[in-house]
Structures are given as structure tokens and as C-alpha cells.
Amino acid sequence: KIRELLLSGKLEKEYIIKTINSINSITNDDFKIQVNKIFNFDNIETTELGQIIDRFSNSVLLLRLLYKSFDELNQFANKEISYTNTMNNLNKLIKIQEIKKNVVLNYRTLEVNYDRFFNGIETDWDKVISILGWTNEFKTLCKKYELSNAFIEKICNCDSSIIYAKDAFKNISGKYQRMQDNLNWFINLFDEKEELLNINLLKLLTRTENCLNNIAQLEEWIDFRSIRKLCNEEGLSDFIDKIQLMKVHNTLIVPIFFKRFYRLWLDSILPDYPAINNFRRRNQEERINNFKKLDLLQLSIARSRIREKLISKLPDVNDVESSFGEVSILKHEL
Q1: Residue 290 belongs to a domain
Q2: Domain-embedded: residue 299
Q3: Residue 1 has pLDDT above 50, yes or no
Q4: Does any domain span residue 190?
Q5: How far apart (Å, rounded) are the C-alpha atoms in residues 190 and 89?
Q6: Quick check: is 284 in a domain?
Q7: Range of the domain at 315
Q8: pTM as predicted
């Protein structure tokens, strides 16, 4: 039919050229890529052109229906809206419908779990989430302070207890606000600010009373802080911290410091003197004990040597000349 139409001469040249260009654009690789992105063909290279055209035709029909529906929807709008805003609103509407559907399906469960806070689709979920967060914090506090079940039930269910706790909280908060400036002033007098802020109220009260009752020792406290600051500047912060932590008596601080100082001094000097560095008490005691044993043995040896010398100098009584010797004359006279 196309050939007969061409031979009949009824088609104009411009129309033929335009048609050929359109066909060339369809067979172009870029066009194929764009079409494949839209319609996602399994293999566009093997897909017949007729199938592609049918797909396009159906898409055009659907787009016309969509445009008609969009035009009808615009008639109910107070002002003209764009297609993008319309689609966004429709997606939101779909989500709302899904939520409503889930609420209807789980209505009984939600009503049991959330009790008076549940009001169907009109439920204030922000409030519910806030309440659940508070509940989680309350459970953490109950576990931290080991609150009994009786107290928890009373503070949650008893109206009078709730009112009392509320009034007590307001009272304590008001007093805290009034004393906050004085408390900050007092805490800033000490270095352990965080510790004082988290300390038990009774301990804080005891410490405050001790400071008040020992105001006469303020001068000593000021001197202590000044000396501690100087020690920290000289590199003794670790020593000062341990002294305070172990609560060492003041009479022992200086001896402990000198002992540690001399020990560190010896550790730095002894490596230069191997003989002293290798000195050990056990070895020294062994040497001393060995010396004592040898000394006693030496005494015995010395006695034997003296006895030997004395015996060697005694005259021989069997000697021929012994009758004329000094010993014989002495015996004769006796």
C-alpha cells in the first residue's frame, strides 16, 4: 500500500521527507535508549517497530485519560495547581488511606494498648509518642532508685498522691530557683564542681554545715588551696590527687614525699653505678653469714697454729745433752 501510494503521486514531497526523518529518528540509538527507559523492553533491538508503536499508542490513550482526570480534579480546587503538587497530594492521600485502613484493622489492639489516648484516626500520635518517652524515662528512674511496686502504683494511680507529688515538685523547684545563685556561689568555691552538683542532698547539707561551723578555719583553707595550686604548677598534681584520695594524715605527707623523691632519685642515678645497682639484700646477707662461718673457722685454725708453734719449741727429753740442759738442772733441783 505504501508503494502504491508513492507511485500514485498523491503524497507531497515535503510530507515524504518529514515522514522519512521521523522514521530515521525512531531508529536512532538515542531514541531507542529513551524508549527503553520508559517502557523497559526485554530487548529493544529485537522488538518489532509495530510493537513499539502499539505501546506508544496505548500510552498516549492513558495519558489523555490522566489529563482528563487531572482537568476534572482541578475544577474542585480553589486555585490552579500544578501536576507535581497534585501527584504529591494524591500520594499523601494514599498514605492517609493506608493508615486509616491499618487503624481500622487494628482498632481493638490500639484501643487496649493506648486506652484513653486513642481516638481512632484523630489520635494525637505526637502526644502518644511523648507519653511513651516519658514512660521509658520513668521506668529508668524506677530501676535506678529501686522504687518499690507499691510506690509506683500509688504515684501512678492515686489522685491524691499525684497531686501531692505535683505540689511538692513545684515547691522544690521554686526553692531551687531561689537558692540557685547562692548554690552556684558555694559550688564555685571548690574544684570538684560536678561532684558537688551530683552529690546526695544530705551529704551536701552536711558539707555546707561543716563549712559554716568551721568558718574560723577559712584562712587555713585558703592557704591549702594556694599551696595545692603551687604544687600542681610544679608538676605534683598526681601526688596531690593521690594524697587527697587516700586521705593521708598531714604528718605523713612530707615523709612520703621524701621517700618517693629519694626512690626516684636513686632509680635515675643507680644505672650509672653497676656495683651498687646490682646490690641485693639477700646476696649481702649470704656473704655476711659466710664471713661469720669462715671467721669462726679461722679462730680454730689460729689456735691450732699457735699450739703447733709452741710444741715445736719444747726441748727433747731424750736428747744426749738434755742432762746438762736447763730442764734437767731444774728437775734435779726440784
Answers
A1: yes
A2: yes
A3: no
A4: no
A5: 61
A6: yes
A7: 280-333
A8: 0.34
Contact (Cβ atoms closer than 8 angstroms) between residue 208 and residue 186:
yes
Q: In the 8-state DSSP scheme, what is residue 192?
A: -
C-alpha of 334 from chain center: 111
Dump the DSSP string for 122-145: T--HHHHHHHHHHHHHHHHHHHHT
Work out the pLDDT band at 67, boundaries 50, 70, 90: confident
Q: Which residues are bridge partners to 121 per DSSP?
A: 119
- Please tell me the distance from the alpha carbon of residue 274 to that of residue 279, in angstroms, as a whole number: 8
Q: Can you tell me whether residue 60 is helix, strand or coil? A: helix
The residues pairing with 119 across neighbouring beta strands, listed in sequence order, are: 121
Span 301-334, pLDDT tens digits: 888 888 888 877 766 655 555 555 566 666 666 6
The predicted model gives 277-291 an average pLDDT of 79
Neighbouring residues of 156: CB distance < 8 A, sequence distance ≥ 6: 162
Residue type at position 54:
D
Number of H helices, E strands in the chain: 17, 0
Number of domains in the chain: 1
